[in-house]
TrEMBL record:
<comment type="similarity">
    <text>Belongs to the UPF0065 (bug) family.</text>
</comment>
<protein>
    <submittedName>
        <fullName>Tripartite-type tricarboxylate transporter, receptor component TctC</fullName>
    </submittedName>
</protein>
<dbReference type="Pfam" id="PF03401">
    <property type="entry name" value="TctC"/>
</dbReference>
<dbReference type="InterPro" id="IPR005064">
    <property type="entry name" value="BUG"/>
</dbReference>
<feature type="signal peptide">
    <location>
        <begin position="1"/>
        <end position="24"/>
    </location>
</feature>
<keyword id="KW-0675">Receptor</keyword>
<dbReference type="InterPro" id="IPR042100">
    <property type="entry name" value="Bug_dom1"/>
</dbReference>
<keyword id="KW-0732">Signal</keyword>
Length: 331
């Protein structure tokens, strides 16, 4: 079939070609805020990363207003779906963590595709995890904790922030490594899980340093180990041994966060957002805030969109068999 290029059709094509550069030049408008959808509850670790990042990205984007929309539920799939449906104009973004690589295995009927419903903007940080317990737990170190868990097994209550959360995933790996099935207690967010852990309603939890560091420093929970293969240098967590060094060889869980835009967002707009993101990741205040929470700001090639997407694909391939082996998924 031959297409006839009429003057009207050529005019539309020319207008479209001019519109994209014009949109990039006008983005972001001073009077139009950018919304970052966070698919987890306010006050949680991912929310804290998002709010710090929003502040750091304001200046490189011309001091535009950036607001946070906490669209929670279903292991971050509700907020992620909301972002996928958003108008692809750069004014709605998504900040999510490792859930972007685990949702395909956890949920059978997602209303979006992680690999094709989004434009990838870059990885933000890597966040270690810590194994913590209620303050009245009889174990005072990991060796004692492992013995206590072995004696009590299914009587041990392990909290998490819900299906697909970082604490849920870390808990799956820990139970697999210990060859023990604990009683898991899912919550609707990290904050209520931590509240009950401090209050002694649950026994243990494996969660991000962005949520546990201040509680460990205040001695509101007992800290047993970090999930990285090397000890952390954060002042509050320095000296806390790794699980790898205490018998769980190769145990290594790090939670990462990334920034996304809806599929179809114009390339010039994406370029501006990526430039602003990379500027934010070099902001001394942002870096200091993240370090204070035990997080490591990304400086490698994953801050580039293509490498970010490749990384998520690799993480998906790593986590899918672990989740399927555990048999923990939702419709």
């Amino acid at each position: 079939m031959q297409i006839r290029f009429t003057p009207a059709l050529l005019a539309v094509a020319a207008a479209t070609a001019v519109a994209l550069p014009a949109q990039a030049q006008s983005f972001p408008a001073a009077d139009k805020p950018i919304t970052i959808i966070v698919p987890f509850s306010a006050g949680g670790p991912t929310d804290r990363v998002a709010r710090d990042l929003a502040e750091a990205m304001r200046k490189p984007l011309g001091n535009v207003s950036i607001v946070i929309d906490n669209a929670t539920g279903a292991g971050s799939s509700i907020g992620t779906a909301k972002a996928a449906r958003a108008r692809p104009d750069g004014y709605t973004l998504l900040l999510n963590h490792i859930a972007m690589s685990t949702m395909p295995a956890l949920y059978r009927n997602l209303p979006f595709k992680v690999d094709s419903s989004f434009e990838y903007l870059g990885i933000i940080n890597d966040v270690p995890m810590t194994l913590v317990g209620k303050p009245t737990l009889p174990a005072n170190n990991y060796k004692e904790l492992a013995g206590w868990i072995s004696q009590n097994k299914s009587k041990v209550n392990m909290a998490n922030a819900g299906l697909g959360s970082a604490s849920h995933l870390c808990g799956l790996l820990l139970q697999s490594a210990l060859k023990t099935q604990l009683t898991t207690v899912p919550y609707k967010g990290t904050a209520p899980a931590m509240t009950d852990l401090m209050g002694g309603q649950v026994d243990v939890m494996c969660d991000q340093t962005t949520n546990t560091t201040s509680q460990i420093a205040a001695k509101k929970v007992k800290a047993y180990a970090v999930t990285t293969t090397k000890p952390l240098t954060t002042p509050q967590l320095r000296g806390l041994p790794t699980l790898d060094s205490q018998g769980l060889k190769g145990f290594n869980v790090t939670i990462w966060h990334g920034l996304y835009a809806p599929k179809g967002t114009p390339a010039p707009v994406l370029a501006k957002l990526n430039t602003a993101l990379k500027a934010a990741l070099k902001d001394p205040v942002f870096i200091q805030k993240q370090q204070g929470l035990g997080a490591v700001v990304a400086t490698d090639r994953r801050v580039e969109p293509a490498a970010h997407k490749q990384f998520v694909a690799a993480e998906t391939a790593k986590w899918s068999p672990i989740i399927k082996a555990a048999g923990q998924y939702a419709d």
